[in-house]
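Backbone geometry tokens:
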Amino acid sequence: MALVPCPECGREVSDQALACPHCGYPIGGGGGYEYRSERQIFGLPLVHIVSGNRMDPATGRPRVAKGIIAIGPIAVGGLALGGSAFGVVSFGGAALGLIAIGGVAIGALLALGGMAIGLVALGGGAIGYYALGGWTLGAHALGGNAQDPNTIEFFRRWFHFHDGGR
């Protein structure tokens, strides 16, 4: 246990406290888990995992996993997995990346999600150059509101679908 300054009132508080006993500011307490591999690539840990407290009790700032492989409530990396994920390939509630998969996914190339925005977007709501979903918007869109036959051909080639010799 260590004493840290409360981000709200500045008085000393246990880093395990759920809230500051002086002003009631939520500290988060209960610790958490953090793993950072010793091996680094491009100055980033190969693996960085954060769990538990969303806020760092020492700084009062959100705890962010940053690494080639990053896993945490907020994850930033080559492969990012988290509630909010930002990376080359990202998986999360909100995902942003070259390839993004999540509840809300924004991908420069590919986005898969409840709401997907990307060059190729697949989702309940999809916005993209090629968009496939329940509601779609794009140059080539196929969904409940749009029927572009070029989109069918694109996805057939993209997924290597075969129609049984027809």
